[in-house]
Design brief:
This protein is an alpha/beta fold and about 260 residues long. It is built from nine helices and seven strands, in the order E-H-E-H-E-H-E-H-E-H-E-H-H-H-H-E. Strands 3-2-1-4-5-6-7 form a seven-stranded parallel β-sheet, sandwiched between helices. The chain binds NADP nicotinamide-adenine-dinucleotide phosphate.
Length: about 260
């Protein structure tokens, strides 16, 4: 029970890394407000947590909306009395060459992957200050926030933005004992690979195997990943758990890379 008595918000909790994180934090004693734009998956996440004896609620939330962020933080404090942990996880992937990318697609990716993270921090920090014991914010970036990748310029821009935004927040709120760290997953076996707009890029198509539910391990190996396999959502959730807990109490503004050696 590494998070006993803590209250957490996890966005994008209907699927993949967000679902695994919500389940993991609840297993370790946190009361979890699981949110997502996708209600059906949210019900499944909630059922998994409550079946294991955990404490959670589900709320539909579009992370692009400031009003919905205000409502989510208020609902969390109303339900559980406090807010200590925020996991800004909701995100989308879109693979298009810069010259092929519409302004609409660019703006939507920025709104979800980067503005959503800003809004989450903006509205969670005042609630965390009131706890008197500080808080921990975990922003999900990517290895694409550390290295450029052809065909993923928009995604790289948002994830690189999350990386440095995280460090600035860490410096601004350290005196309030609010820590802020980023997590950089490599290729993780989640449904994102079935939703990604590959923009006709062969390399992305080969990894994402349209119609399949898992990234292609042969392709991952060919691309030079030393462990030659995709990671699991739990691999990332365990890193997030560490950053949420007091075990990482001296870490803020850090980058936790969990990529099977991809960027090594
Ligand atoms: P996922 O399985 O697709 O889960 C993402 C969740 O976010 C989905 O339930 C999605 O709903 C939701 N979402 C999308 N737009 C939203 C919005 N506007 N407001 C609220 N929720 C929204 O993907 P994942 O792989 O777990 O990704 C989680 C995070 O990890 C993302 O930030 C992603 O960029 C990052 N990441 C993933 C990988 C990987 O290989 N899987 C690698 C590096 C980083 P819909 O299904 O309705 O869109």
């Amino acid at each position: 029970m590494r998070l006993k008595g803590r209250v957490a918000i996890v966005t994008g909790a209907s699927s993949g890394i967000g679902r695994s994180t919500a389940i993991t934090l609840a297993r370790e004693g946190a009361a979890v407000m699981a949110t997502d734009i996708d209600d059906r998956g949210g019900a499944e996440t909630l059922a998994a947590i409550t079946a294991a004896g955990g404490k959670a609620r589900y709320l539909q939330q579009d992370v692009r909306s400031e009003e919905q962020w205000i409502a989510t933080v208020a609902a969390t404090v109303a339900a559980f009395g406090n807010l200590h942990i925020l996991v800004n996880n909701a995100g989308i992937g879109s693979g298009q060459l810069v010259t092929e990318m519409s302004l609409e697609a660019w703006n939507n990716q920025v709104a979800i992957n980067l503005t959503g993270v800003f809004l989450g921090c903006k509205h969670a920090i005042p609630a965390m200050r009131k706890t008197g014991s500080g808080g921990s914010i975990i922003n999900i970036s990517s290895v694409a926030g550390l290295e450029g990748s052809a065909g993923l310029a928009g995604y790289c821009a948002t994830k690189g933005g999350v990386r440095l935004f995280t460090k600035a927040v860490a410096k601004e709120y350290a005196a309030d004992r609010i820590r802020c760290n980023s997590v950089h997953p490599g290729i993780i076996d989640t449904p994102i690979w079935t939703k990604i707009d590959e923009g006709g890029l062969q390399e992305l198509q080969a990894i994402s195997q349209p119609g399949a539910n898992a990234p292609n391990p042969d392709m991952i190996a060919q691309m030079g990943s030393p462990m030659a396999r995709a990671g699991s959502p739990d691999d990332i959730a365990n890193g997030i758990l560490f950053l949420a807990s007091d075990e990482s109490g001296y870490m803020t503004g850090s980058e936790l890379v969990i990529d099977g050696g991809w960027t090594a």
